[in-house]
Amino acid sequence: MKPKTEKLLQQCRATLLQYSGEQLNTLFLSWFEHMIGEESMDEDLDDLCLLLGYGIRSAHSQVLYATYTAWWEIEGHADPDGEFVCLDVAALQQRLIMIPIKQLHLVTDLAYQVCLQDADGEEQPRPPIAQNWLRSLAAWLNDGAPEPLHTQIFHTKESPSTPPLQQPSPKQLQAQQRSLEDKQIEQAWQQGYLLLSPDMPTRVLTLVQSKCQKNHRPYMSVRETDSQFASMSIDLGPLRRAFNAEGKLFDGAPELTFLRHDDTIQQRLTTLSEQYCVKAETEPQAALLSFPLSSILELNHILTTNVPAAIRDFMTLLPEILKRYEAQLETSRTAYLARQRELEEARKPAWLKALTRLKAQGSSATCPDLADTVTLPKEWPALISKEQLGAFLAFLKLPASAREIKSNLIQHLSPHLEADKTARAQFFEVFAFELAVPPWELETLLGCTTTERKRWVEEERFPILTYSSFHKAGNDYDYAVYDRRVIMSLTRDDIERWRAEHQELVRERRRVAAQAAAAARKAKQKEAQLEELLHGRQ
User: Fold this and answer.
1) Is the pTM above the cut of 0.70?
2) Nearest CA among 441, 480, 435, 444 for reference residue 462
3) Is 163 part of any domain?
4) Of 82, 79, 125, 133, whose CA–CA distance to 105 is shortest?
5) What would the pLDDT profile of 343-362 be if each residue is shown by its tens digit?
6) Helix (H) or strand (E) holding 525
7) Backbone angles phi and psi of 70, in degrees to 5
8) Domain with 436 in it
9) N or C terminus of the chain with fewer C-beta within 10 Å?
10) Is residue 187 domain-shared with residue 322, that is, in the same domain?
11) pLDDT one-digit tens code per residue, 479-536
12) Pairing of strands 194-196, 219-224
C-alpha cells in the first residue's frame, strides 16, 4: 500500500470516529441495505459483518445470521426481505479503531459501491476512483454528510478523459429495474391484487406472496386474457397457514375444503361470479368458480374495468369465510386431540392400563382367584421397577415416596402380598406380563421336557399370554411366555392325565398304522398270486 493511500485511509477513519455509535450505525445500515442482492459484494459484506459486529435478521423467520452469505443461501435468495442488525452499537467506534488499516478499505469500497449505484440510478456522473475517492469521502464525512454522498462529491469538475454517458450502464439498468419492481410490489399491496404479465419478475411474485403471508391476507392475482377481459385467482393459503400458527394444537391446519361443500358460501360465490362474469347469461357454466386447489378460487371472463369492484365484493365475503374456517378448524382440532389421546392411551404399558382399570372399578374391582399353589418367583423384585412398585403401593393406599429406595418399597409391599389375598390377586393381575413364565421356567415348574412343552402348546393345554424377544447375532428372535397364574394352577394329576392321553393317542395311532400295514401286505400277496396264475396259463 502506498504511503499516501494509507494516510488517506487514516484520514477517513479519523473522520468516521467523529460520529457517535448511533450515527455510525445509521450510516452503515443505509450502506448495507443498498448492497442486498449484489453478488459482487457478498464476500466484502461477510467480512464487514465480522469486523463491525453486524448480523442480518430474516423478516420471515426472525433468525439472526452471522454473515450475509449465510442468510442469502438459506432464506435471502427466496425472500430478500431481511435487515442488518448491529450487535453492539456502543462498540462500533472501538471496532473501527481495531480494524487494521489494510482492511479499512472494505468500508471505503462499500461507500464507493453505494455512491456508484445511486449515481447510475439517477444518471449522474460516476464518483472518482482511488485516492481521489478517498479524499472526496473524507471531505463528505468531515462536513457531517449534509446531503447524499453521490451528489456531494460531484461538485468538482469531471475529468476531461471521462467520456459522456450515451446509454445506461448495466448497473443503471439494474437499479432502474429494482426501482420498477419495488413500485410494482407497492402498487399490488395498495390495490389488493397483483396484475400479472408474461414478463413478471420472479422477485415481485415472491415478495408479494411473502408479504401476504406475513400479514395474513389472501394472495390475489389478475391475469389479462385479452385487451378487455381478465381472470382472477384468489389464494387463501396464507389464511390457512395463519390459523395453523395460531392453533398450535395439531400438525398441519386443514385445507379449506368447506368452500366446495358449504351451500351458503357456494351460493354467495356463485352470485359473485354471475355478477361479474360477462358470459354468465349466454354460458351459465362459465359463471361458476373453479377450484384447482382447495384453497384457491378462480373467476374467469371478468371485464378488466370490473376487477377492483370484484375484489372489494370478495373482501366483504371474507369474514364469513374466516368464520366458517374457524368452525372447521375447531372440528379438526377436536378430532386431532381425540386421536392424540387414543395414541397416548395405546402407548401406555399394559401394567398401567390394568392399574387404571382397577382404580376406575373402585371397590367393585374383581380379579381371578389365585390357587394356593400360585406364588411369586424369588426374583420378582428384579422384575418389577421402582416406578411400578410406587404406583401399586399408591393404589393400595399404602405409604410410598418417590425418594425412597427400591428395597424399602419392597419391604412395604411384601407383607401385604403375603397377608392379603386380594392384594396378591391384584398384583398378579396388574403385573401379569412382568411375572409371565418363559419357556425354560415352564419346563422346570411342570417337570416336563421341551418336546412335551411344545406339544402341549400346540394342543392349547395352556394359553400364550404374549411374546417376548431376545437379540442374538444381529437378529431378533421371539418366544412365547405364559400366565404364571395358569401355569402354577396346574397339578401333577393334570400333567399325568395329559401324558396318559398322549400315550393312548400314540397307541391308537400305532394300532391304526399296524392295521393299515397288514392290509397293505394282504393286498400285495393277492397281487403276487394273481401274477403267478397269469404266468402259469401262458
Assistant:
1) no
2) 480
3) no
4) 133
5) 888 889 999 999 998 988 88
6) helix 492-537
7) -60, -45
8) 352-493
9) C
10) yes
11) 999 999 999 999 999 999 999 999 999 999 999 999 999 999 999 998 888 888 888 7
12) parallel
